[in-house]
């Protein structure tokens, strides 16, 4: 579950490299950055549910913190956390 500064988001577009476009639960579209610790270990595709942490100095960008599996994402949708 997200901390105070983290949000649920859905990946809408993969821009190549380590950048994705995400639609956050607060209604904003942000550019998400996949950190190096996840880049080759966790594959992120369009439609995946992720946990993001928006940047303090640029609100239109965020770091990807976690990718939820299909079962976990379905459970979050059933509980009403995401659309």
UniProtKB/TrEMBL annotation:
This is Translation initiation factor 1A. Keywords: Initiation factor, Protein biosynthesis. The keyword Lipoprotein does not apply. Residues 1-69 form the S1-like domain. It comes from Halanaeroarchaeum sulfurireducens. One of its GO terms (molecular function) is translation initiation factor activity. HAMAP family: aIF_1A. The keyword Transcription regulation does not apply. Pfam families: eIF-1a (PF01176). Belongs to the eIF-1A family. It comes from the Archaea. PROSITE patterns: IF1A, S1_IF1_TYPE. Seems to be required for maximal rate of protein biosynthesis. Enhances ribosome dissociation into subunits and stabilizes the binding of the initiator Met-tRNA(I) to 40 S ribosomal subunits. InterPro entries: NA-bd_OB-fold (IPR012340), RNA-binding_domain_S1_IF1 (IPR006196), TIF_eIF-1A (IPR001253), TIF_eIF-1A_CS (IPR018104). The gene is eif1a.
């Amino acid at each position: 579950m997200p901390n105070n500064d983290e949000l649920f988001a859905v990946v809408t577009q993969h821009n190549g490299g380590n950048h994705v476009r995400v639609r956050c639960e607060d209604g904003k579209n942000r550019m998400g950055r996949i950190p190096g610790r996840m880049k080759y270990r966790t594959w992120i595709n369009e439609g995946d549910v992720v946990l993001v942490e928006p940047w303090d100095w640029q609100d239109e960008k965020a770091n990807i913190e976690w990718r939820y599996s299909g079962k976990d994402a379905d459970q979050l949708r059933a509980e009403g956390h995401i659309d």
